Amino acid sequence: MAPTRDVFVAVIGAGGVGKCVLSQLEGLTKRFATRPSSPKLSLIFISRSTKSLYSTEYTALPYENIAAKLDDSSQKTLSLTETIDYLAAAPAKVVFIDNTSSQAVADKYAHILSKGISIVTPNKKAFSGSYKLWQDIFTSASESGAKVYHESSVGAGLPVISTLKDLVETGDEVTRIEGIFSGTMSFLFNSFAPTEGSGGKWSSEVTKAKELGYTEPDPRDDLNGLDVARKLTILARLAGLPVESPTSFPVQSLIPKELESVASGDEFLQRLPEFDSQMEETKTAAEKEGKVVRFVGSIDVGKKEVKVGLEKFDRSHPIAALKGSDNIISFYTKRYGANPLIIRGAGAGGEVTAMGVTGDLIKVLERL
Amino acid sequence: MAPTRDVFVAVIGAGGVGKCVLSQLEGLTKRFATRPSSPKLSLIFISRSTKSLYSTEYTALPYENIAAKLDDSSQKTLSLTETIDYLAAAPAKVVFIDNTSSQAVADKYAHILSKGISIVTPNKKAFSGSYKLWQDIFTSASESGAKVYHESSVGAGLPVISTLKDLVETGDEVTRIEGIFSGTMSFLFNSFAPTEGSGGKWSSEVTKAKELGYTEPDPRDDLNGLDVARKLTILARLAGLPVESPTSFPVQSLIPKELESVASGDEFLQRLPEFDSQMEETKTAAEKEGKVVRFVGSIDVGKKEVKVGLEKFDRSHPIAALKGSDNIISFYTKRYGANPLIIRGAGAGGEVTAMGVTGDLIKVLERL
């Protein structure tokens, strides 16, 4: 039996975010080792698609070249069920870090938590899927005492979920949440409809964003609004609204109907200029009112309304004045009155997403 | 012996913030009572200047009309030392909530923590006094395992301290912190040098701010910059700089030399118009560069420089575009790059200050 202050960490997913998490985890493990009051962290399991690295004796895996070692691993890959059994049998408390965006893994969260294994993750799927899955997860955590934290599922490392929880838990009344929740959409509209100057053509901005790596491989995966809808689902539920799913409220897609079913992202980009006039009209209409158009998500808690789509804002509004690919989230509450509590900054990227994960891990460790 | 999940709460200070804390504490106690996984909170002690209410048997005080009952109390007042002895002998874990701004109470924090009593407070004095006091407090907490949280000591309920701690603890490199840390200064400069329009005379804006209750009874207590210097001291220390005291770095006072020693705040306000031309010059100089003047605090972590005073900002800068009496805090870090992580909102007021205290209390309870 390991000493009480041993905590085992299991990591699934070692891509962009996963690699940053591993690096931050290595730093944390070293810092903790110098402090008698901190637990001793041991990475006992890591997996990525069909590759796994783990010790049947639960001894710590060394971090040196771990991503390469994982790629070269010929160790028998454990299925998700086998992984959970392996972790549940560990002789110390375990924190499971899910860096994937897999629905299959998310569907196992309630089961994982029921085994006393805590979860930390940027994976939105578990919290923005069916409302039943949400309820199962938090009921399971409450019953077993295991913790589940997912700060990076909205706004990456920005303190969005923790702030909303604090507002609710301390008894404030959150009346409205509004913001720009997608780095891609932020970048696109800050370039297409800047507060100063006239901006480029919509299709050119989308193409540029793709070239700079700001969009998914197929830009339609950003333009359909579903990513923003998932984040809104999470925040609405935390604010107390039992939102059924990310498709149970109005979500405006910026994909022209005619291009929804074209075969590839490249073909989509090629044909997008045919539809530039639609977006140009929207921009001009806003300009006539002295405003700019932005792609926002909003939650009206009193009216129980959630929506995602284009809105017009005064040029001096914090949402209009955003830069680069920043996110911005405004919490309107009874205590804060007319001027909301606002959080702004990078809402995507490996390092800042991993920071939310590592920050959550620290919070779990303090509560175990 | 009370069951393990009993936690006792002691409150000192029942003025503006204190009353709001009591009200939020009552709400929290009721919500916790409905959840089997939450501790049972009992308020066992409350005091205010020469009045105290407590039970020698450590039974819970009812919240009904508690402020009035405290005012009418004829119970023997305990000295601070007696209070600590009373709490240290309690048959359950105790959280001490200090709603005062007393240096005498702050000086006892290390002793209180050494008795295993956790502390939650908006009182800046303990964390912005001598560096030795700071070290004693955190050494004592680390040795006894008691917790000490002070979110509301900077920016009231805004998640400023928790965010800075997360950045540091997860291994980010904080390079610069900059912001407007005083609701009074924010209000004054948003009116005196607005981004649109010309603003009023300096002395008129100070008088108006006082009439609206935005300043201390003697406005010089805001204009000397010490309140901002205290907050900067706290943030600089959390960022790793061993700042000796709030007077060990440059702090610009907005009190004209000639008015430093006039007898009263009223006389100060009466004579302030004689010095309007000085502030007008500063404003005009900024305007000539297309900028506005603001009273900011900044920390350059690399250069180990902390300073408080007037600075010029482009009209489109988030610090220039503030509204009302909002605070804004920008964290520049290695991970966040050129676009900082920004937190903005009300940084003063009873309810939002109490929210920071209640939020901290919840965090302590989760870690006890």
Helix- and strand-based class of chain A? alpha/beta
Note the gap between the termini of chain A: 17 Å
Q: What's the mean pLDDT score of chain A? A: 95
Radius of gyration based on Cα positions of chain A: 22 Å
Shape of chain A, please? globular
* Proportion of helical residues of chain A: 25-40%
Oligomer: homodimer
What pattern of helices and strands is seen along the backbone of chain A?
Answer: EHEEHHEHHEHHEHEHHHHHHEEEEH
Number of helices of chain A: 15
Largest sheet of chain A: 6 strands, mixed
Proportion of beta-strand residues of chain A: 15-25%
Low-confidence stretches of chain A: none
Name the pair of protein chains with the most residues at their interface, and give those residue counts: A-B, 47 and 47 residues
Total count of strands of chain A: 11
Strand order of the largest sheet of chain A: 3-2-1-4-5-6
